[in-house]
Amino acid sequence: MNTVALSAEHLFKTYGEGDTAVHALNDVSFSMNVGEIVALLGPSGAGKSTLLTTLGLIQPPSSGTISIAGTRVFDNGYQVNIRDFRRNNIGFVFQKANLLPFLTAEENIRIAMEVNDASSRESKQYAAELLEHFELSARRTFLPKQLSGGQQQRVAIARALANKPSLLLADEPTAALDSHMGRKVMELLKNVAHTHHTAVLVVTHDHRAIDVFDRIWMMEDGKLSEKNRQD
Ligand SMILES: Nc1ncnc2c1ncn2[C@@H]1O[C@H](COP(=O)(O)OP(=O)(O)OP(=O)(O)O)[C@@H](O)[C@H]1O
Ligand SMILES: [Mg+2]
């Protein structure tokens, strides 16, 4: 399969204006295929989080176009209802799991589906599948505070997948984990990309798990380039 899941053309994002303007995205163009997992590396302040939030329709670019799952979502303004589109097509994972503290692991996953109109039966069944896939079945009824950091992060990934997004965006998802668990979570993300046919874009500083990725991108001063593995 070689279908484009995500593409951007000539993305610019400028914060502020005049002397204090920051060109966080400076003519970024790329495309990602369905089922691909890509690492996004680069120094602090390079524009990595800006790229993720822009692709995730959390903030608009200053100019350029974004297409997700065959829909031109941004072209001189948003072309879709961003809240609906985001809910149906995009999953996010952040550095911290940010689970709802008063809900169990299972409920944290189910609620993401039920706010998206899934029936209770549907959400129960798919949450069980995800929990099984992430080796969390035995922790189904645990509250976040009863889970380890790695377990919480796996619940957060399961929750991000609950609505079967075509695009999963992860901003330093393993930063709070030790290197063993960090690697396991990266391998899970790879598995998600390859088996769920999701495009997975991961910002990471962790070079130890870099072999997990299909491609490696580098961001510097708002510019994106592809890295050769040998570099
Ligand atoms: N809301 C904002 N207002 C003004 N400038 C911003 C804003 N958000 C980010 N910037 C600037 O844009 C640039 C890129 O920031 P961004 O957060 O995308 O970097 P990053 O690559 O994710 O860095 P890090 O690795 O530290 O998370 C930085 O110079 C930052 O100061
Ligand atoms: Mg960042």
Mean pLDDT: 93
- Tell me the domain tally: 1
Structural class: alpha/beta
Rg is 18 Å
**Which cofactors or ions or other ligands sit in this model?**
adenosine-5'-triphosphate, magnesium ion
> Helicity level, as a percent range?
25-40%
- Fourth-level CATH superfamily: P-loop containing nucleotide triphosphate hydrolases
Number of helices: 6
Tell me the β content: 25-35%
Q: Roughly how many Å apart are the termini?
A: 28 Å
Q: Do you know the CATH architecture?
A: 3-Layer(aba) Sandwich
Total count of strands: 10
Broad shape: globular
Main beta sheet strand tally, sense and closure: 6 strands, mixed
CATH class, please?
Answer: Alpha Beta
Low-confidence stretches: none
The sequence of SSEs as H and E is EEEHEEHEHHHEHEEE
Q: What is the CATH topology? A: Rossmann fold
Spatially, the strands of the biggest sheet line up as 6-7-8-3-9-10
What does this structure look like?
It is globular, with a radius of gyration of 18 Å. It is built from six helices and ten strands, in the order βββαββαβαααβαβββ. The strands form two sheets. The protein has a six-stranded mixed beta sheet, sandwiched between helices. The model has no long low-confidence stretch (mean pLDDT 93). The chain has 231 residues and is of the alpha/beta class. Helix 3 packs parallel to helix 5 and helix 5 (149-161) packs parallel to helix 6 (179-196). Strand 1 (4-15) and strand 2 form a beta hairpin. The longest helix is centred in the C-terminal third of the chain and has 18 residues, at 179-196. It has a single domain (4-14, 22-227), classed as P-loop containing nucleotide triphosphate hydrolases (Rossmann fold, 3-Layer(aba) Sandwich), CATH 3.40.50.300. Bound molecules: adenosine-5'-triphosphate and magnesium ion. Adenosine-5'-triphosphate binds at residues 15-16, 22, 24, 42, 44-50. Adenosine-5'-triphosphate is lined by residues 15-16, 22, 24, 42, 44-50.
